[in-house]
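#onboarding

Welcome to the new folks! Below is a worked example of what a typical request in this channel looks like: someone posts a single protein sequence, and someone else replies with the predicted structure as tokens. Don't worry about understanding the tokens yet, we'll cover that in week two.

Example request:
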Amino acid sequence: MNSTALKATVAGVALLSMAGWAQAETVRVTVAEYSSKTGPYFEEAAKAFEEANPGSDIQIEVVPWDVLLQKLTTDISGGANADLSIIGTRWLIDFVEQGIAAPLDDYMTQDFKDRFFPVFLEPSVMQEKTYGLPIAASARAMYYNKALFEQAGIAEVPDTWDELAEAAKKIGALGDDIAGFGLQGKEIETDVYFYYAFWAYGGQLVEEDGTSGLDTDAGYKAAEMYKSLIDSGATQPGVTSYNREDVQNLFKQGKVGMMITAPFLSNQIKEEAPDLEYGVAAIPAGPDGERGTYGVTDSIIMFENSQNKDLAWKFLDQLFTTEWRAKFTSGEGFLPVNPEVAAQPAFADNADLKAFTALLPDARFAPVIAGWEEIAATTSDAVQTIYLGNGEPKATLDAAAEEINGILGQ
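Example response:
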């Protein structure tokens, strides 16, 4: 997120706490839409809360992810934001620096903190204060189509990127409408799809000296490898026209041999393509055995200018009880953020979720630094340029790294 732009939109945010727009017993909640189940879940939770707390009014607004940040920025600038909102945790540092997010520590008992796995709660802790709660969490793993593996004569699931490239070419040769490796090249997480190989080759998003790691051998090798997959016909054609959902749809249709994505694809397959034979494996390793999955949390925050913080917190407390967390997590297909939920048979006995959970020790999270959204966009632009053949990997990544260094103040 561009911190300068955010500062401009939230000028005078401290005065908003005096606006008094919220009704005394009303709590407004802005919710990111994960699936068709998101709205009904939160409406059900709101109804249960209102029944248990007569006189309360919980108002739910569901917003698509691709416009959520813009909507929040607009609402904040006009003093019309909700009391609570789901955000990408990577945005949180900008909200904290501008005094938009309220610290929650005065409400949190130790028993409440113990509801969470620390790895998922820690990303929302800044300056020794907790500014958000992990509403959703996931990692990334590689899905593979068992039938296509068999048709291509592939006996073992690739464990390295070299093995993946070889297998992808074999699968891609099965037919013009079959892709060996589904590669995302559009919209949210386009940069992340690049990081999987980048991390495997030993790359660091931000080097120890505070500069971008894109202009390194790891960046060049990852870009060259992905471009080789595209040029050899091992991916679907026109990868820059495919976002994450597009590639997932191809996989559910049986047209992709391998792709990397989140746990929620398992739920979608069970509901939309129950006959698809698939497996879940670790993201491939690099030549030195390094590998990394992308760890993701989304947080729900309370706004500093909320006029009804106590009631808003009470609703948060309900959302993070075991009953409501289990219902949300199972419905959306996320990883449990609570030990009690994780211990339930529906999660503990789920083979797919176990595969993702096993990858958490290798999880990498987006750096908690100002301007990360702008950095991610710069990276996405660079890899798209490479995928389209409009720039050589080294020169394109060098230029992107220089731009990122400016954002980083280097």
